[in-house]
Amino acid sequence: MMDYIEFLFWPFLICLATVAIHAYFGLHVIKRGIIFVDLSLAQIAGLGMTMAFLLGYEPEGTVPYLFSLGFAFVGAIIFTFARGVKGKVPQEAIIGIVYAVSAAASILAVSHSPEGSEHIEHLLIGSILTVTPDVVLSATLVFGAIGLFHWLARSRFIPLTFGKQSGPSIHRVWDFLFYATFAIMVTTAVKICGVLLVFIFLVVPGVFGSLVAEKFSHRLILAWIFGIVSSVLGLVSSFWLDTPTGATIVCAFGLMLLLYALYRGLRPRLRAR
Questions:
Q1: Alpha helices in 91-153, H assignment, sequence order
Q2: pLDDT, tens only, 91-133
Q3: Rounded to 5 degrees, what angle do the CA atoms 218, 223, 228 make?
Q4: How far is 192 from 209, CA to CA, in rounded Å?
């Protein structure tokens, strides 16, 4: 039992840290109606990592991270200005275009590489089960710094999404800071968890919290609880079933949300009885 707990300890901690910051951003993303922005930014970061891979750098190194971060910042700038044309073109359309182009560019970039398919698979599902204590510590520090910044500036970020922010120049600056910190978070997470798991960590807990509660703080707490429970279920299932960890956690999140949806649909009938 102790060996089992020790084996899953570090993957659980990185899930805990990732869910904590992703659930917060997820509530913003759901309210703004830009559900796929995380998937798009993650794919852009993955394209940066792919460029570094083609130049001969190992995915775990500093250079690929900087490449990914640079590409993600470009995406943050695009999405910041894309919000300004929302009246003519839905922002979600631009997000989808950016995702499709960056995904296609990644495939084209590694199409002649012998290890290209393995690289693309790593970008999709990550390697969360083999995470090291150093990686957990560095990622937690990054996520913690982002969370602290957003908490200190909550009077700016919360109204930006859930209320009204006066002044177009102020709006644009804080909107960019939102996407810039979002880009840092995604770049850090996708390197560990992969694109699919990062997307699930962002959206599913936020959806659950938004369905159950009205107040922002209550939604956030419920999203954290949902994310932690689903992560534990996915990790344990992956260990016992000997299945890919990232994909198993994704399915666990989907299953938990499905069970709640079924309960929500059956609740009126159960009360009637």
A1: 91-109, 116-125, 133-152
A2: 778 888 888 888 888 778 777 666 656 666 666 666 787 888 9
A3: 130
A4: 25
> pLDDT (tens digit, 9 = 90+) per residue, 248-269?
999 999 999 999 989 887 777 6
Q: Is the dihedral of CA 121, 125, 129, 134 positive or negative?
A: positive
> Using CA atoms, how far apart are residues 54 and 151, in angstroms rounded to an integer?
38
User: In angstroms, rounded to a whole number, what is the distance separating the alpha carbons of residues 118 and 144?
Assistant: 31
| Residue pLDDT, tens place only, 163-188 | 755 444 457 788 889 988 998 998 88
Q: How far apart are the first and last CA of the chain?
A: 44
**Domains defined for the chain, CATH in brackets:** 2-266 (1.10.3470.10)
Please give the backbone phi and psi of residue 48, each rounded to the nearest 5 degrees, phi first. Answer: -60, -40
Per-residue pLDDT at 16: 93
Structure tokens at 125: 């599902």
Exposure string of 207-233, with b = 16+ CB inside 10 Å and e = fewer, is: bbbbeeeeebeebbebbbbbbbebbbb
The sign of the CA dihedral 32, 38, 41, 43 is negative
- Please give the Cα distance from 122 to 68 (Å, whole number): 14
- Between 177 and 244, name the one with better pLDDT: 177
Query: Under a CB-based contact definition with an 8 Å cutoff, are residues 192 and 131 in contact?
Result: yes
Q: How far apart are CA 211 and CA 222, in angstroms?
A: 10
3-state secondary structure of 153: coil
Amino acid, single-letter form, for residue 251: C
Mean pLDDT of the chain: 83
Position 109: which residue type? A
Q: Which residues neighbour 132 within 8 Å (Cβ) at sequence distance 6 or greater?
A: 10
